């Protein structure tokens, strides 16, 4: 007799195949099969995330409609979201029987119910709130308020933060801190819901110090919530409206789930995108722009194929050949007591700071000597522009406002000996020698056994 697991899987496959026998039995068969998969394929045993796709489809379709009402547009929307989810996990699910069963079942249901493969999906998280929970029914649909789409007793979403400021310094969604060159146009965020691109230009002619001079944010059209909106800011031009002059998401029913608010005229704006649970802060400090965002992990990772996705600075960080080791630069400046980079191609900044004077200046606004403080010192030494001190200060203020983990506000650099080429450091150089000795001894024992 076949093992229980195998018998259940075969039965589940037969259930998918039986769905074509009638619309009335379709949902019933589906609802019987999904719990089976949820029970027999524990998510901790495999990187395949098909169970997540199954459970999201189950949550989007069960309880909200009668089993005979699959012909509604909502059913096709949920089905497209299900298909979208399976495509995202295809790479890790190639050998998973539950995955292949789900893919075939989706195709069958698409045909049976005349669902187009192109159209809206229910992401992010389309949930139906219990009666009386929504306080925005008259203002916007529930799907247009990300946080309120969660049931009272479900886990709150996890939020992440990314920021870009100064010459330029990047804090990624994973709290990695980098100083980069990235001259020209670079993608900062690129997912299913919005794109952010920055343009960095030299602070001084011929200088390797760059700062953000232009910012473009594209909010993609999303279901009944918002139309596509474009926001653009440049040096000395920080508008309090989208490119078309509007201040919200357009004419759709949930337009107010996307709003621009001017905090300080020409210096500070905030964009609230409630439908994706996202807050964006853009500032002009001196002549240049800073960017900060708070975004749910679910939205951060909402991409068609993350493995083949192109560069996305907030998620992947700067390329290695674009990164600057400002610790080495700082140590050199401290040792030499000089305020400028050497070489004829790097002109001196208009106002020269020594390492000591830059340190004292930055300490006025940033008393904790973390990476924001170190960035401030670096920028004063490379640019001579005191506005970069303010950029670091406001960047940290935005972190305090937007970061969900208050224990990670400050980031620190490990004390380490830098290896050539920015290789991975070792805090204890003797540890590497000890490791080689251990490996050599192990190899000799292994050869002895052979």
Can you give keywords for this protein?
450 residues, alpha+beta, 8-stranded antiparallel sheet, 4-stranded antiparallel sheet, 12 strands, RGM_C, signal, lipoprotein, RGM
Give a structural overview.
The structure is a single chain. By secondary structure, the chain is an alpha+beta fold. The protein contains 12 helices and 12 strands. It has helices spanning 4-17, 23-40, 50-61, 73-88, 97-112, 297-300, 313-316, 326-336, 355-365, 371-383, 387-402, 429-449, and strands at 159-165, 169-171, 177-180, 184-190, 194-202, 210-219, 229-234, 258-264, 268-273, 278-285, 288-296, 323-324. A hairpin with a 3-residue loop joins β4 (184-190) and β5. α2 (23-40) crosses α3.
Helix and strand arrangement:
Elements: H1 4-17, H2 23-40, H3 50-61, H4 73-88, H5 97-112, E1 159-165, E2 169-171, E3 177-180, E4 184-190, E5 194-202, E6 210-219, E7 229-234, E8 258-264, E9 268-273, E10 278-285, E11 288-296, H6 297-300, H7 313-316, E12 323-324, H8 326-336, H9 355-365, H10 371-383, H11 387-402, H12 429-449
Antiparallel strand pairs: 1-2, 1-11, 2-3, 3-12, 4-5, 5-6, 6-7, 8-9, 9-10, 10-11
Distance between the ends: 42 Å
- What is the averaged pLDDT score? 74
Helical percentage: 25-40%
C-alpha geometry: elongated
**What's the total count of β strands?**
12
Radius of gyration: 27 Å
- What is the structural class? alpha+beta
The strand order across the widest sheet is: 8-9-10-11-1-2-3-12
Low-confidence segments: 1-45, 63-70, 125-139, 338-350, 415-450
Strand percent estimate: 15-25%
Number of discrete helical segments: 12
Largest sheet: 8 strands, antiparallel
Q: What are the secondary-structure elements, in order, as H or E?
A: HHHHHEEEEEEEEEEEHHEHHHHH
